[in-house]
Design a protein that fits this description.
By secondary structure, this protein is an alpha/beta fold. It is built from 10 helices and 10 strands. A hairpin with a 4-residue loop joins strand 5 and strand 6. The protein is globular and about 55 Å long.
């Protein structure tokens, strides 16, 4: 079972170069497979309550919360420079807010420099105000994400590259930086809905839902696998990542609870540094080693 970790998104800490550098080395030393960066370009003071993972539509903490979310690709590039095997995931980039060509170039650059370690998690987001601040329409963001995924893969292949979509178009262009693997950067689809599961089946190399019960995970996996077969793809080739603590923070150490996910064919468990006693490096080490011993070893 692979183990990934979301670092502490604490102001003054996640942008402290010495802390982040030492954190990357610690995770690699402890056998953590991957580290995951989070994206929100901005958070509105008075956002429309559309956050899909709470009953009131509000995300934990809200505006002014004591959270810092540095650009995930920049953060992961910094970590990559001081590590050798740690995989680098985004949890997730709101790719429908990005230029497909620019994101393809940035992702390919990081993947090439890191020796093929990038896992590009993508999603559609939920915050209208964030879309407005970036200058991208909120409407039709699902279709925009599909086209962004398809267009990036075209750009990562041998050029000249052409793509003709409703939202993304280019004609006979070259992206001169390619990912380390000729098949491109693995794209992990974020989201817990049926739409996200179907997208993962059709287009994803992986699926990474958030705040999802074991029962809903099972239902979405049926949807994902059916969509993959309809698209002529092998469902078993789509890697599944689950963060149990996002659904129930109090059950991080409940082996039976975690098993209800892993028995469904999960490939990777995600853990947040905030599930430990603290965010100092010694606390993170204790969290990782305890989770490996008390949970993963018993699955």
């Amino acid at each position: 079972m692979k183990l990934g970790l979301i670092p502490p998104m604490a102001p003054g800490l996640i942008t402290d170069g010495e802390y982040v550098s030492r954190l990357g080395g610690l995770l690699e030393e402890c056998g953590v497979e991957s580290v995951w960066g989070v994206e929100h370009v901005v958070v509105a003071e008075d956002y429309e309550p559309l956050y899909p993972y709470s009953e009131d539509g509000r995300m934990p903490g809200g505006p002014g919360m004591k959270v810092a979310m540095p650009d995930p690709l920049e953060l992961l590039s910094f970590i990559a420079a001081g590590t050798r095997s740690l995989r680098l995931g985004t949890s997730v980039i709101v790719a429908s807010q990005h230029s497909a060509a620019i994101l393809a170039k940035r992702a390919a650059t990081l993947d090439a420099l890191s020796g093929g370690r990038l896992l590009l998690g993508v999603g559609i987001g939920w915050q209208k105000e964030e879309y407005a601040a970036i200058g991208v329409p909120y409407r039709d963001r699902g279709k925009r994400l599909d086209e962004t995924i398809e267009a990036m893969r075209v750009l990562w292949a041998e050029g000249p590259s052409t793509y003709r979509g409703r939202h993304v178009q280019f004609e006979r262009v070259y992206c001169d930086t390619k990912p380390a693997n000729p098949d491109g950067v693995p794209i992990v689809i974020g989201g817990s809905t049926d739409f996200a599961a179907r997208r993962a089946g059709r287009l994803g190399d992986g699926w990474y839902p958030y705040v999802i019960s074991p029962e809903d995970t099972a239902a979405r996996l049926e949807t994902l696998r059916a969509a993959a077969r309809e698209a002529g793809r092998d469902p078993a080739a789509i890697e599944i990542s689950i963060w149990p603590g996002s659904f129930d923070f109090s059950r991080t150490w409940d082996v039976d609870f975690v098993k209800r996910y892993t028995e469904q064919g999960v490939d990777r468990l995600i853990l947040s540094a905030n599930e430990g006693k603290g965010v100092a490096l010694d606390d993170v080490r204790e969290l990782v080693e305890s989770y490996q011993e008390r949970v993963i070893a018993k699955l």
